[in-house]
Amino acid sequence: MSETNSKNPLMDTPKKKKHLWGLWIPLIVIFSIVILPLGIVAILFYDPHHIDTGITEKKEEAAIFNSVMTDMFDGCRKENPTIDLKITQKQLNQLLYNASSNLPEQASKYLKQFSIQITDDSYVFDLEIGAFDVLKSHVTIKTIIQVDADLGNGDKGFLFAISDLKVGRLGNMQGLLPWAANTIGLDLSSIFSSAGLSIKADVDNLRLTYSYDDFVSDISSKAGSTDPLFLNIFSNFFKENYISFTHVADQHIIGSINMGDFLANPQYTNSDYVINPKMGTNNDIPMLTYYSNIVTSLINANIIPDQNVEENARTTLKFLTYGKDYINSSEESFINTIYDNIKADYCSNLSIDDYSDLRKAEVFGDDSSSLMDRVTNEVNDILKNPSTFSEYVSDLADPSVESIYIFGGSKAPFTVTDAEVRDLIKSNENLIGYGFTFIGDDANGDAKVSYAVLDNVYPTILAADPVVEGSKDMMALTFGLNINGAETSLILPMEGKEVHDGEKHGLSFDMKNADLLFGTKTFPDLKTQLQEIINHVGSSDGDIIQFYKNPETQNIEEVRIMLDFGDYFAKHEHDDPKDPFTEFNRMANDAHAHLVVDFDFKQRSSDAPGKRTGQFDVSIGYVKDSE
Question: How far is it, in rounded angstroms, from Cα 43 to Cα 196?
């Protein structure tokens, strides 16, 4: 058989099969090291959803805070006035949106949005983070708020305790917060600060704190009020626990203050002198409120332009309410630019100079004649009576008579009422009209004006109570702080004493040691600020009401009611020698007598020791000098 080249396949040695282990092994390794962790990360941390806050552009912080401040006084126009501080979730998110655009470069690479949600029992801060449009997640910080919490260092305020921290879907990750702060520079305190909120983040102790002082300062200063009097009033509402907060599920927080305790103090305030005139067609709107509504319309009509709107609104409100006498030259220059519009649209029957008369008639009531003129005229009338004059001359010539009273003594004394003192104090233009106007937007975006302004000042004279041991003569100096139609009272009760300074005679009231009351509540922190306002009061030697400054501190520490008849008598020396006043004064000097003015508070009756008298008696005469 011939040999062939073909081979029997059955006789061939079978080939070995190729296994795929060499491919599977790297796949498994890749899956284990890359895909599986990425999948776990995606499942646990990847969270691409976006919270729609409805905010797409920046809004000025001052406008936000102004709206808060303006709205909070709406309740003061009610019959039972309240201050209601309402901050909405949207306003907070607007602040956080503004802050997100001002972050440091390292943080802005990762933080895409910072927002807040207010729920039934918690505040949830959400940080949307991402990189390269691929890695997307959320860091969610749930906090439980404690109101009136002790923050340490004597501060009280809001404490947000971090109860949970989620990264994506993974909860209880609070330990990552310090890591995030240290690794990627996520400084929550800085973010809040950029939003105009002085909230402090303590990541190590897992809490956020917001002191009442910082809260008040943030709201007030951002709204344009840096006035220490207003800030301290607002701050004391918190410190003294007069404000109650409610955290509402419909996305806002509200704090309410019942103003009933601050309107008046029955012991010191005299309701007869609290004049809060009404205006409007039905005569049912407080005058300041009536004029604030006019200012609102002037802003919306662009008669008061956007430039310097807060300052010019204050000037306009002060001018409309108190008149030309109460504005300075620069303020008057602005009023002159808009006066034609004011007159045409609101006050067509008035000229610019009429506002001082309107102020006197509507705010202060009719001004009485000068106390000094009235006293001296009555004294002069007595001396011009021949029989009365003869009696005084006879007494003066009698060596056994040691004192001769022109007015008083055995005769009826001259009575000075606190109403007369009130008119003299109110004539000082530096006290009335002090305050602030807040400009905000209403729900429609139109301007709205609220105000807090001193519109009244008056004394209440209190005699020492004879049935109370240690009781002293007093005068309570009361400042009416009108808060958007609610007339509240800042009260300085002062102890009195008689003073004799040369030819001047009077009563001195010590302001230095006086406590300060806000209505029926003690607000000691306000004293310094009210003192600074009083320090602007002008005083000269000729004033009947004088404010005496401490030369070292430049603080007014005494209020004096002084009567100086020395100059009055001396003035008559050049009058007709036959004038009985001149003759009496010459004879008194020849007799080596000196002028005296005695002050006596009219005592309360023993059967009604709590009744205010509101007056004191003045006796004027000569006492003979010792030989």
Answer: 36
Candidates 272, 275, 364, 363; CA nearest to 612 is: 272
More confident residue, 612 or 544: 544
Return the top range by mean pLDDT from 109-113, 292-296, 460-464. 292-296
CB 156 within 8 A of CB 150: yes
Give the integer Cα–Cα distance in Å for 277 and 144.
47
Provide CB contacts within 8 A for 52, sequence distance 6+. none
pLDDT tens across 570-617, in order?
666 656 666 767 777 777 777 777 778 888 777 655 555 555 667 888
CA–CA separation, 137 vs 43, rounded Å? Answer: 11
Name the helix (H) or strand (E) containing 344: helix 329-345
Buried b (16+ CB within 10 A) or exposed e, 546-569: bbbeeeeeeebbbbbbbbbbeebb
Amino acid at the residue 208: L
Q: Which of 53-57, 224-228, 274-278, 432-436 has the lowest mean pLDDT?
A: 274-278
Q: Which helix (H) or strand (E) holds 495?
A: strand 486-501
**277 vs 482, higher pLDDT:** 482
Long-range contacts at 74-79 (CB < 8 A, ≥ 24 apart)? 74/450, 74/484, 75/256, 76/259, 76/483, 76/484, 76/485, 76/486, 77/286, 77/289, 77/484, 77/485, 77/486
> Secondary structure of the chain: what % helix, strand, coil (to 5)?
35, 30, 35
The answer to whether the beta carbons of residues 595 and 406 sit under 8 Å apart is: no
Pull the structure tokens for residue 221. Answer: 């200063």
What's the predicted TM-score (pTM) here?
0.78
Residue type, 308: N
Written as six digits, the tokens of 22 are 């060499």
295: which residues sit within 8 A by CB, 6+ positions away? 304, 313, 316, 317, 320, 437, 449
| Predicted confidence (pLDDT) per residue in 41-62, tens digit | 555 667 778 888 888 888 887 7
Given a contact cutoff of 8 angstroms between Cβ atoms, the answer to whether 624 and 403 are in contact is yes
Which pLDDT does position 1 carry in this prediction? Answer: 47
Q: How many CB atoms lie within 10 A of CB 73?
A: 24
Tokens of 376: 């001296």
Q: For residue 76, how far is the Cα from the chain centroid?
A: 14
Residues 6 or more apart from 34 whose CB is under 8 A from it? none
Estimate to the nearest angstrom the gap between the alpha carbon of 536 and the chain centroid: 18
The first and second tokens of residue 451, run together, are: 């105000």
495: nearest Cα among 520, 526, 470: 470
Write phi, then psi, for 244 (nearest 5 degrees). Answer: -120, 130
User: Under 8 Å CB-to-CB from 404, ≥6 apart: which residues?
Assistant: 392, 395, 396, 588, 593, 621, 622
* Element holding 21 (H helix, E strand): helix 21-30
| DSSP bridge partners of 458 | 478
Q: Residue 321: which of 365, 362, 350, 368 has the closest Cα?
A: 362
202 exposed, middle or buried (CB, 10 Å; 0-12, 13-18, 19+)? middle
Closest CA to 89 of 59, 124, 128, 113: 124
CA 243 to chain centre: 15
Q: 207, 231, 329, 243: which is closest to 529 by C-alpha?
A: 231
CA distance 371 to 369: 6
SS3 266: coil
- The residues near 136 (Cβ < 8 Å, ≥ 6 apart) are 46, 47, 48, 128, 129, 130
